[in-house]
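Table 4 source record.
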Amino acid sequence: MFASTFLATAQVAILQIQIIEGDGAVHPPGTRTSRALTVEVTDETGKPVPGAAVSFHLPEDGPGGTFLNGLRTEVATTDSHGRASLHGLQVNRTPGKFEIRIVASKEQARAGMVSAQYIAGSSPVKAVKGRSKWVMVAAVAGGVGVAAILAAGKSGGAATPAVTASAPTLTIGTPAISVGKP
């Protein structure tokens, strides 16, 4: 009779990704970032997953850029703490929001998420035929949104109505905690 022994190895069933640093960053146009985008990969119990492959993907067009390798895709491996970092993103000169797609994989388990990034707006536009335009891009608290305000005026003649915008107001009420039957 023939007997064989198999060692059971624990396989990762579910991966989770959390962005630790760099989410929502605003970059000056045409610059290389100095701040890392760092993610942490954990299993279903919250334990770090070392040796997981983490790929970072930039958009093909519009706001975005390239990685140190000159491509729009970069791969890093998680360390013993389940962390992987991306350094040296070269952003292009197209202002606006873009997303870095992040995919982690280990064995058969996969997880994905996106990190919102921003390229800051431009400076005032040249005057054209007596008109001038200013573009101001302001990040709303917490990176929730971006507001653009355009103002145009004529020199001489009738007054042009001013364009104004007010910042949104966020109000948080009193928390309610209910125990048992309401």
